[in-house]
Specification:
MATE_euk; globular; mainly alpha; xenobiotic transmembrane transporter activity; MATE_fam; antiporter activity; 488 residues; transmembrane helix
Length: 488
């Protein structure tokens, strides 16, 4: 693992980002170490170097998340639609149920690795990077047991949402296969973050690039033979191939340098408290936002077919727009945690670059949604009323995206700092204390319909973005760096 060889050396994917224990003694005296004082390494990076690092590494992250979305959602729904409208409805309901009860929990809890693994890597505690990954996999595998029991017995819940007995049977059949793939989802998510913490952002992308054609092929093969079991079987097999391929990559190609091969059972089952302290708020952050958008879509059904169709279009494009700042946020979170672990003043440069990118992306998403709203609307429909409704909604959705970019990236900074509790608390207040009542008032009482729902959501996101931005700007960096000592 290479080190920074000069003060102006640019950051690369394989650079040990900030600190090498053999050189840190140039700055930290032995007496200071013994006194347990935090002495920060001087700045040895540049604005251009930080910008290049984040943009370069966010591209493979973007590809990875888009392809995961295709594998988890779009491809199964597409092939289920080939079996008929009832199968399409069953797949949509099953995937929504699976998402909020599985991947959201796994993704949210594994954000603890964004803090722990990345901080340990920045501090040069390389074996701890692997140990943290192993502990997180162990915890999530245990959590997946009750989740699998729920999926296998999902009729208990779904019967309250599906009145049609045939639709209910299709949903139950779909979810009963999912437990077979649960360990693969856990291994891939944790393995992905294990590599990203070492700044190996392109490794998961290399694996998932081959997974998309595989899942397409499996769906084609299974669709006629297995009916509704076809898409979910293809999903499970694909995820197992992804998990195994990522494991082979780590142990045979790159990433094994940080794996702890001497871990025993007592090591795996100790030190869990910090995972729950970081992981539960991480779950709440992601789950609160996911459910907020589900509520918005559910409320849209009250305003007629045209309004619901327009909501489907703008929410799909909003999900696409979300991926760009989210990818930037992943790289920013890793970079900041590396800096904290290294106890370096590089945070002064990095945080300015990150916030600058947040502002740029806010204007970028807002601009393309407004400028291209008519061409985009016509891609989905030729109906004049629907096109006009979509374009009308794009004005408020674009404003929401302007604010959400700041929220997404500031939330990532808070994760890198290990301050998930702040992010989760603000998310719950913003979406359910502020946004949801505003949605009801503006959408129903003021008669603004779906436009009012998005406007109410924008009010909540405004509060969330401003609050998170204030938390980031006024961060006690030295206190955060000092606290990271006990964390790793």
């Amino acid at each position: 693992m290479s080190t920074i060889k000069s003060k102006n050396a640019l950051t690369t994917e394989r650079t040990q980002l900030l600190r090498d224990d053999s050189t840190s003694s140039n700055y930290i005296g032995e007496n200071e170490r013994e006194a347990n004082q935090t002495v920060l390494l001087p700045i040895d990076t540049t604005y251009s170097g930080e910008l290049r690092y984040i943009i370069k590494n966010s591209l493979p992250v973007l590809v990875t998340f888009v392809f995961q979305y295709l594998i988890q959602t779009m491809i199964p729904i597409y092939f289920a639609s080939k079996l008929g409208s009832k199968h399409l409805s069953a797949a949509s309901l099953s995937i929504t149920t699976l998402y909020v009860s599985g991947p959201v929990i796994f993704n949210g809890f594994s954000t603890s690795l964004d803090t722990l693994c990345s901080t340990a890597y920045g501090a040069g505690h390389y074996k701890k990077v692997g140990l943290y990954c192993q502990r997180c996999i162990t915890i999530l595998l245990i959590i997946s047991i009750p989740l699998s029991i729920f999926w296998a017995n999902s009729r208990i819940l779904l019967k309250h949402f599906a009145d049609d007995e045939e639709l209910l049977e299709l949903c139950v059949s779909y979810l009963q296969i999912v437990p077979i793939g649960a360990p693969a989802i856990v291994i891939f998510e944790c393995g992905k973050r294990f590599l990203q913490s070492q700044n190996k952002f392109s490794a998961p992308t290399r694996v998932i690039v081959f997974a998309v054609p595989l899942t397409l092929l499996l769906n084609v093969i299974f669709l006629d033979k297995l009916d509704i079991f076809g898409p979910v079987t293809a999903f499970v097999i694909t995820y197992w191939c992804m998990a195994l391929s990522l494991g082979v990559y780590i142990f045979k190609v790159d990433g094994y340098q940080c794996w702890d091969f001497d871990t025993d059972l007592p090591d795996l089952f100790t030190g869990w408290s910090q995972f729950f302290q970081l992981g539960i708020p991480g779950v709440l952050m992601i789950l609160s936002e996911a459910l907020a958008f589900q509520i918005l879509t559910l409320l849209s059904t009250r305003f007629g077919e045209t309004q619901l169709a327009a909501q489907s279009v703008v929410s799909t494009l909003a999900s696409l727009a979300f991926q760009i700042p989210f990818s930037i946020g992943i790289c920013s979170s890793t970079r900041i945690a590396n800096i904290i672990g290294a106890r370096s003043e590089n945070y002064k440069i990095t945080i300015r670059v990150v916030l600058g990118l947040a502002c740029f992306l806010s204007f970028f998403n807002f601009t393309w949604m407004l400028l291209f709203r008519y061409p985009l609307a016509r891609l989905f429909s030729d109906d004049t009323d629907l096109v006009n409704t979509i374009c009308y909604l794009f004005t408020v959705v674009g404003f929401n995206q302007f604010l959400d970019c700041i929220n997404i990236i500031c939330a990532a900074v808070l994760r890198g700092q290990g301050r998930q509790k702040i992010g989760s608390g603000l998310s719950l207040i913003s979406y359910y204390v502020i946004a949801t009542p505003c949605e009801f008032y503006m959408g129903f009482h003021m008669g603004l319909e779906v436009f009012g729902l998005w406007l109410g959501l924008a009010v909540g996101v405004t509060f969330l973005s401003v609050a998170e931005l204030i938390c980031v700007i006024y961060s006690d960096w030295e206190g955060i760096i000092e606290k990271s000592k006990s964390m790793i």
